[in-house]
Design brief:
The structure holds 2 protein chains of 2 kinds. Chain A is of the alpha/beta class. Chain A is built from 29 helices and 21 strands. The radius of gyration of chain A is 33 Å and the shape is elongated. Chain A starts with 7 loop residues before the first helix and ends with a strand. The mean pLDDT of chain A is 96. By secondary structure, chain B is mainly alpha-helical. Chain B folds into 2 domains: 64 residues, no CATH class; 57 residues, Hypothetical Protein Yqey, Chain: A, domain1 (Orthogonal Bundle). Helices cover 60% and strands 0% of the residues of chain B. Chain B contains 6 helices and no strands. Chain B is globular. The mean pLDDT of chain B is 96. Chains A and B meet through helix 2, helix 5, helix 10, helix 12 and helix 14 of A and helix 1, helix 2, helix 3, helix 4 and helix 6 of B. Chain A: One of its GO terms (molecular function) is cobalamin binding. Chain A: InterPro entries: B12-dep_deHydtase_bsu, Cbl-dep_enz_cat, Dehydtase/Dehydtase_re, Diol/glycerol_deHase_lsu_sf, Diol/glycerol_deHydtase_lsu.
Chain lengths: 746, 121
């Protein structure tokens, strides 16, 4: 015990990463509560002569600007009476009942007030939310969005990383700036990089509302998302907007044929000190109702910047997912958070994302940090480039389409080179700046901006100013690409501009596939109605999900083993029974000297045998190597060897490295010592095994050897290899009698 | 409905990398046409979202306005920027060019902003 300190068990627990997270006692006065706030109203709706005169307990003369906009634009009066009269539990059940279509549900939901939808969704358990999400999201095919940013707004790195993100399958890329004035340069660099990586990747640059729209008007970005809504009037005004200005902004984007969605998320009002004693979930219900009312096609929510505020209170993480489902109920595109990092704990952040990952949404992450945490200028994301392989493995584990795919290293290297070349050419052609070859080479190789030492930190700012002052548009970028031989990329950038003319990607949940087809609520509607319906990956897409670059086949392993082939170990003839009391047989498995040359620890089979021989020699015994050809079972190998052994003691060794000491009078599965965890058996241990076998042979007392213990996931690392190695051993099994083997010193 | 006609009236099939290179193309050639937005409004309504349809119809009215004007009108609607009178003036200007839905939006704003203290002081 340490005075004034908790006991060791608690000191140890306190050190775990989850305890870096803040956990709040619910404070309803401050809005620090997920559901059931003090001022959350009971649902109500009174319509008089075709006009809403009371909504959620508030008369129209008391409507604030948010109530007013929702009441005048957001509620479908033709179904409102019917919708509000439905029992909330009954409606909640429909969300998970395949017999009620998505279409019928969204139609009724359009007549419901914020408090009504909040009441309904607070009834769903976590598992029910997963089903509701599967059923209610607008687009059939799930997708994902990436952040592409870096600390220095380095255009070459942005382009290389944008191309990389596209290669990994992201269909929307979101950039932002540490230096606000750099924004136009970032927009150009990411748009070029995206075009290098894939056709049809949407690009946005998150900056102040008016500046973002101006970039869109010049064609430098292809969608917008940072159009924030808040659930209380005061915080809305603090955000320098009103529902009317946001409605107008929404129309302004559509008037230029540019896709946009709004951003909200529970906890932001509490974080900004203006929750008005309402719960996070109720305030978010107001935001989502407003999003529909102003005519936005979609919402990014699920906490976003305030996700950790929601995460700090009981039920908060569930409320974040319920926010996303609410967006789906309002028949809007759902870009489902999992954006700002909400926990220092890998377990908690995975737990927060996982139900949405398996439920499937329009965009699982509203910003997967495709770059490293330190380069994410939104702040570290819930998922980052550190986690891409984890995410791909999770897709494979569950057979789930999370929107990503494995990218081939050689191909990514090629794309990164192409992206830096394209940006260099365009910047130079348009007089935006010149990049050194050294800078470009570093950007191609870089895992992050810390790997780049030769960048010019002033270049992005100069480039951005020139873009604004000389009125560079996407047309100029396209011309510059074409003039410099980047015809493919010029065409892809042009295709994104031309998509604005048709306007199909303004519809709910629209993305482009790689053939520039629009996938949206209209063209790719989600019609899930129970098992066997809804989204099923095509065989080609399933193959992408299943085939990660780390997977190995038996054939791969054979080739790898062959590369370690050793001519110095070979059979010389059949083995006889010995009567020499110093004789200890080392029984080796059928693949020894044929197909398996390296044990799981990385030590060669020859070296393992050499150590055992040396150990025997130390004890004055003579080792004899005998290959047991008719069994791969280590017990049988050891026992067969012991029966040939003059001393009656043997060492059995499978080529993968597992070993034991056997004696001829024991049952096959019994043994004197077993070294079962092959990946952890070192040279020293094989020698120790030889020594102990010698002592057993002489009747002396061996020093027991403990199997080395590791807290690492040894089985996860090696079990698949074991299956393959055992299969190789099995192929080597013959009816041949045991053979003596010679091991020459190399 | 021909979704191929840009705001300028040019068919997008004429917009090629080559024609851009020659300098024959302006942003108006790759801007959406108001009739296309009207069509998209119909699609949105058929797909259960009359509010999205309304947005597209407001947008259709804004296609004819220069970028600067659109940005200026947006700014006018931000809190504390305009008096109710300023907002009503814009509503009149919008009505004069046939932008009736946007005009109505400004009229409503003038009313609500005055009531909620969101007008310029």
């Amino acid at each position: 015990m340490i005075p004034n300190e908790p006991i060791g068990r608690f000191r140890f627990m306190n050190e775990q990463r989850v305890n870096l997270d803040g956990f709040a006692t619910p404070e309803p006065e401050l809005g620090l509560v997920a559901f059931n706030g003090i001022n959350d109203p009971a649902p109500s709706l009174i319509i008089n002569a075709g006009r809403i005169v009371e909504m959620d307990g508030r008369g129209e003369s008391d409507f604030d600007s948010i109530d007013e906009f929702i009441a005048r634009h957001g509620i479908d009066l033709s179904v409102a009476q019917e919708a509000m009269a439905i029992d909330s539990t009954e409606f909640a059940r429909r969300l998970v009942d395949p017999n009620h279509s998505r279409k019928s549900i969204v139609q009724l939901a359009s007549g419901m007030t914020p408090a009504k939808l909040a009441e309904i969704l607070s009834l769903l358990t976590a598992a029910e939310l997963v089903i509701a999400m599967t059923k209610m999201r607008a687009r059939r095919t799930p997708s994902n969005q990436a952040h592409v940013t870096n600390r220095s707004d380095d255009p070459l790195l942005l382009a290389a990383d944008a191309a990389t993100a596209a290669a990994f399958g992201f269909r929307e890329l979101e950039t932002t700036v540490p230096v606000a004035a750099d924004a136009p340069s970032n927009a150009v660099a990411v748009s070029i990089g995206a075009a290098v990586g894939s056709p049809g990747v949407l690009v946005q640059c998150s900056v102040e509302e008016a500046a973002e729209l101006a970039l869109g008007m010049r064609g430098l970005v292809s969608y917008a998302e940072t159009v924030s809504l808040y659930g209380t009037e005061q915080i809305f005004i603090d955000g320098d907007d009103t529902p009317w200005s946001k409605a107008f902004l929404t129309s302004a984007y559509a008037s230029r044929g540019i896709k946009m969605r709004v951003t909200s998320g529970g906890g932001s009002e509490a974080l900004m000190g203006g929750a008005e004693k309402c719960s996070m979930f109720y305030l978010e219900a107001r935001c989502v109702a407003l999003a529909r009312a102003i005519g936005a096609q979609g919402v990014q929510n699920g906490g976003i910047d305030s996700a950790s505020v929601a995460g700090a209170v009981p039920g908060g993480v569930r409320s974040l997912m319920a926010e996303n489902v609410m967006v789906m109920l309002r028949n809007l595109e759902a870009c489902t958070g999992n954006d700002a990092l909400m926990s220092e704990s890998d377990v908690r952040r995975t737990s927060r994302t996982h139900p949405i990952f398996i439920g499937g949404s329009d965009f699982i992450n509203s910003g997967f940090g495709s770059i490293q945490r330190y380069d994410n200028m939104f702040g570290p994301s819930q998922w980052n480039s550190e986690d891409i392989d984890d995410f791909l493995a999770m897709q494979r584990d569950w057979g789930v389409d999370g929107g990503l795919r494995t990218a081939n290293e050689v191909e990514v290297a090629r794309l990164r080179r192409r992206a830096t070349e394209a940006v260099s050419a365009v910047y130079s052609w348009l007089g935006l700046g010149d990049f050194s070859q050294e800078w470009a080479e570093q950007a191609i190789d870089a895992a992050g901006s810390k790997d780049i030492s030769s960048g010019d930190l002033m270049l992005p700012l100069t480039a951005a100013r020139t873009i604004m002052e000389t009125n560079v548009t996407m047309l100029d970028v396209i011309a510059a690409l074409a003039e410099n031989g980047f015809d493919l990329e010029a065409q892809r950038c042009l295709d994104m501009l031309k998509a604005r003319v048709a306007g199909d990607y303004l519809q709910t949940s629209a993305i482009f596939d790689e053939e520039m087809n629009v996938l949206s609520l209209v063209t790719d509607p989600n019609e899930y109605s129970g098992p066997g319906t809804g989204y099923q990956p095509t065989p080609a897409r399933q193959a992408q999900i299943d085939t990660i670059r780390q997977q190995r086949s038996v054939a791969d392993l054979l080739v790898e083993q062959k590369s370690f082939g050793n001519k110095n170990i070979f059979a010389t003839g059949s083995a006889e029974v010995s009567y020499d009391p110093r004789d200890v047989v080392i029984g080796v498995s059928p693949a020894t000297g044929k197909d398996i040359w390296v044990t799981l620890s990385g030590l060669s089979v020859a070296d393992a045998i050499t150590e055992i021989l040396a150990g025997l020699e130390e004890e004055g015994c003579v080792g004899r190597i005998v290959r047991i050809n008719d069994s791969l079972d280590l017990g049988m190998i050891g026992l067969t060897a012991a029966r040939l052994s003059g001393s009656g003691v043997s060492v059995g060794l499978q080529a993968k490295g597992t070993a034991l000491i056997h004696r001829r009078d024991l049952a096959p599965l019994a043994n004197l010592e077993l070294y079962s965890v092959a990946p952890t058996i070192t040279r020293e241990l094989y020698r120790m095994m030889g020594i102990n076998a010698g002592r057993h042979a002489k009747g002396a007392t061996p020093e027991p050897v403990r199997n080395p213990y590791s807290d690492e996931a040894i089985e996860a690392r090696y079990h698949t290899k074991v299956v393959s190695l055992v299969a190789i051993e099995r192929n080597c099994v013959t009816k041949e009698v045991p053979e003596v083997m010679e091991l020459r010193k190399s | 409905m021909n979704l191929q006609i840009g705001f300028s009236g040019k068919n997008v099939s004429e917009v090629t990398v080559e024609s851009i290179r020659r300098g024959d193309i302006t942003l108006d050639d790759v801007r959406i046409h108001p009739s296309t937005l009207s069509h998209q409004a119909d699609v949105a309504r058929e797909n259960g979202n009359p509010q999205l349809a309304e947005n597209f119809l407001r947008a259709a009215e804004l296609t004819g306005l220069p970028d600067e004007t659109v940005l200026r009108y947006y700014d006018a609607l931000r809190p504390g920027r305009s008096t109710a009178q300023d907002l009503l003036q814009i509503a009149d200007d919008l009505a004069a060019i046939g932008a009736v839905k946007n005009s109505e939006l400004f009229r409503q704003a003038a009313d609500v902003y005055a009531r909620r203290g969101l007008t310029a002081k």
